[in-house]
Amino acid sequence: MPKDKKDNKLDVEDNIDTSSENIAEEAENIGTPSYEELIYKNEELEKSLLRANADLDNALKRSINEVEKAHKYGVEKLLIELLPVIDNLEHAMNNLSEKATKEDKEGIELTLKSFESALDKFGMIPIYPVNEEFNPEKHEAVTMEKDKNKKDGSIGNIFQRGWELHSRIVRPARVTVIKN
């Protein structure tokens, strides 16, 4: 065997012997844990693993919830920007002059219906509170009025329809409230 390889072999054997001695020394320094200590350490590790798994599950659930909300409400700003267009079409319907033709009225009605249909596809539902009690979560009181035919707290006139997106109020209905 060449001299270089022989010397190299001795170095490896010396390292093995040295590392074996080091391991033995470390084992003596650490000491042998008792059965109770091992059980306690095992329980700690199991609890730590359970906590890590629970944290991971919670993070996954939060992420899924956030993605679902993003899909549901991602178009909210766009839909809010379209609401004035619908309001203007409603005002146009209500304020048509007597000279307007039947075709003009039908055209505005069809445009309004197509807009409402498009909003409905995205989960927008109108709040039109006819014969309802005032609900501050869904209605915005503009003023109060008297009406002997209706009871206190009910809605009188509706100035503007409200809208909700997947049960989230986007815009409350603007109404008058009856107070006799």
Order of helices and strands: HHHHEEEEEE
Fraction in beta strands:
15-25%
Number of helices: 4
Q: Could you tell me the CATH topology label of the largest domain.
A: Nucleotide Exchange Factor Grpe, Chain A, domain 2
Cα-based radius of gyration, to the nearest Å: 38 Å
Q: How would you state the average pLDDT, rounded?
A: 86
**Structural class of the helix and strand makeup?**
alpha+beta
- Mass-distribution shape: elongated
Spans where pLDDT lies below 50 across 5 or more residues: none
Question: In CATH terms, what is the architecture of the largest domain?
Answer: Roll
State the major sheet.
3 strands, antiparallel
The total beta strand count reads: 6
What distance lies between the first and last C-alpha atoms, to the nearest angstrom?
A: 115 Å
> For the record, what CATH class of the largest domain applies?
Mainly Beta
CATH level-4 homologous superfamily of the largest domain? Head domain of nucleotide exchange factor GrpE
Task: Order the strands across the largest sheet as they lie in space.
Answer: 1-4-5
DSSP helix fraction? 55-70%
Number of domains: 2
Question: Can you walk through the features of this model?
Answer:
The protein has 180 residues and is an alpha+beta fold. It has 2 domains: 36-73; 74-178, Head domain of nucleotide exchange factor GrpE (Nucleotide Exchange Factor Grpe, Chain A, domain 2). The chain is built from 4 helices and 6 strands. The protein has a 3-stranded antiparallel β-sheet with strand order 1-4-5. Strands 2-6-3 form a 3-stranded mixed β-sheet, with no helix packed on it. The chain is elongated, with a radius of gyration of 38 Å. The N and C termini lie far apart (115 Å).
